[in-house]
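Researcher: Going back to the complex we discussed earlier. I've cleaned up the inputs and rechecked each line, so this should be the final set. Can you rerun the prediction on the complete assembly and write out the structure?
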Amino acid sequence: MSATTTLNRLSNGSFALVKEVMAEGLTRRRLLDLGLVPGTKVEVIRRSPAGDPIAFNIRGAVIALRRDVAGQVLVSPWK
Amino acid sequence: MGLTYQSTGQSTTREIFNALADHCDYAIALAGNPNTGKSTVFNALTGLRQHTGNWPGKTVQRAEGSYIYKSHRFRLIDLPGTYSLLSNSADEEVARDFICFARPDATIVVVDATCLERNLNLALQVMEITGRVVICVNLIDEARRKKIRIDIDKLGKRLGVPVVATAARSGEGMPRLKELVSDVASKRVQTKLQPVRYSQEVENAIARLEPRVQAIVGNSINSRWLTLRLLDGDTRLVHTMENYLNTGETVSVMPVVQEGLV
Amino acid sequence: MQKSLAPLLEDAQEIVGLRQNQLQDNIVASIYSTAEQIAGEVVSHTSPKRRDLDRQIDNILTSPIWGFPIMFGVLAVVFWVTIVGANIPSSLLATELFWIEARLTDLFMALNAPGWLHGFLVLGVYRSLAWVVSVMLPPMAIFFPLFTLLEDLGYLPRVAFNLDRFFKKAGAHGKQALTMSMGFGCNAAGIIACRIIESPRERLIATLTNNFVPCNGRFPTLIALVSIFIAGSVSLSLSSIVATLAVAGLVVFGIAVTLAISWLLSITILRGEPSSFTLELPPYRRPLVGQVLVRSVLDRTIFVLRRAVIIAAPAGGLIWILANATVDGASLLSTLAGWLDTPARFMGLDGFILLAFILGLPANEIVLPILIMSYVCGGAMTELASLADLRHLLVEQHGWTWLTALCTMIFSLCHWPCGTTLFTIQREQRSRRWTLLAALIPTAVGVVVCIFINNLVRLLDLV
Ligand SMILES: Nc1nc2c(ncn2[C@@H]2O[C@H](COP(=O)(O)OP(=O)(O)O)[C@@H](O)[C@H]2O)c(=O)[nH]1
Ligand SMILES: [Mg+2]
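Model: Rerun complete. Updated structure for the full complex:
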């Protein structure tokens, strides 16, 4: 088992597997709906020029999440 | 920019639907993820000019229009784009309530050919509510450009509903879409859904609860789907559902754009 | 018999127990994995390299170095094309329409029609139509298609991506950048677009501040004034560039005001945490350029012409009556303007300008035409077919300075939304209070900024 971190801590260009969404309520459901279910592979694409939000490749779509939201997604770095 | 449209205010989905039934033979809903070209499909079918734009959320009004195919009038309702129907937002609720309660004769699910997996998520959810679905794999020109190939026949077999590849902007595939919609709406073609299988825990729970759900809702609502929502703890849906079962009414919150004024 | 699902819901909760979250995860995950499986069976990529193109475009458009300059550049190019492109059709239309006015006058004379009828119909109704069509229509019909192209291309979500940090700091929603972008086309459309913002608090912030984005109906005013005053003072070859930068600067000012007011609102009457949001950056799609251009130029033209007939024509008639009905020797128009003159002058405007803004409530694109009408009706001006004539009218006859122009532009950017927009806000929010506030906030900002600039400039003796 590799180390666990959160989505916002990964650097651009890296990949990770979703372990768990820690958010609660509506945010949680939205993240799940976007496809951030356990086992999903996510790629960190880029950060906005101002540093936040961060764009991810989630199941084929490019989706930007604000840093605090991305921080609620537990992942394990991939490769 | 569309400014003149009429608000339905207090009217119910039912009323809208009944009103529709007077003027048309079939009511068809148009669902799909944001930005998959629903409005473009809508325009291509109806000849209207609903606004389109390349950003998710462009359509915030529900548009209606109609077209005639083989001397039947089809009424088309452009629903807001959503990623899912699990009622996490007002849009999702509107789309879900419409499919569930207004019970259109067919629902076209527009999916993005360049991003099929993500879009099938919604399509599968729609197919849990109703079997009368036509899948419209749109943006097929973009997919070709990106060298993505999709086996349309296989997709149709796998899902158990008719599937058509389209490029709505250039009109490609539209005649076939009309044909399939007509087949499904008139029940000339029966769909054979392959329901999503859930984990053992969930399936067990469904098995325990579903018969009792079925006893209450009968055949008007898909009981497996409703059971899943009960397990989800979707209390809002339960309220709307009770209201519907007892009075036949649900409140629609989305203003309708009048034809041509957009 | 009443049907109830409540007992079943209770049973379901009992079965699920404390595992509600896991169960939800489970359900969503099963659907997604089914989708994944099906997609895996039917989709094949013949070349996996292809999607990199979007990435490469984004590397530039959202780059830490180039992202912001490009945004400003795109804005500037759109304005520049509008300013340069509108020049020729504008003067052609003006020449034509005023030639027709002269012929109409001939006709009325030949028919021996009474002077008031000629005045009302030709100098009032027709002339205001002519002004709307010649000054306002060309920039509107050029700007709007360009904007639509950007929208179709998929650039707007990138703007939202670039700017989100600032909106977050202001306690606002990231999609407010999208609703603002729509505001460029039409503020009422921007208000409707606010529906994409789920949180009521943040939707209100976006609604209340949308008016700080100059809509399509206000651009031509800004462009005309900038061309006359700021660009008029430099050499001809530079003038369109200077005009562009000035208009772009005004827009940036509007964005800054939006952020500032959003921030103020979110720490006062609309307090709260920014809600979470997700923004999809869709793939770039090549717009059908020809089709978009033809369609949106036509759309805009019809839209403007319709509004001109419905709103500008009656307004023109009204102005003529006000200018020609006299009480105690003074025309009603100058009496009204006289009442407004003192507060207006304190803001760097004059009574006629403020009156034009007030009478322009139904539609922003009639403000400048109304102003010209009321200046012309009172005076001896007959021929007015170019910006040079307009400059003469404003500067020589009505004592405008660059400061007057600046204050007018700022007030155009920051004042009450047009009638249609207010109506839309009322309908969306269903609250008189918020609608009123949506009018008061921008007006207050406009008044304060104008007073400040006017008095500062005068204090420093700059004019
Ligand atoms: N290339 C291509 N573009 C399309 C097609 N259908 C729609 N579009 C474009 O995709 C964008 C989104 O379309 P729209 O109808 O607004 O999507 P909606 O949000 O689902 O209603 C627009 O810019 C359309 O012009 C298509 O079949 N091919
Ligand atoms: Mg749409």
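Model: Worth noting: Residues 200-261 of chain B form one domain.
Researcher: Good, that matches what I expected from the previous run.
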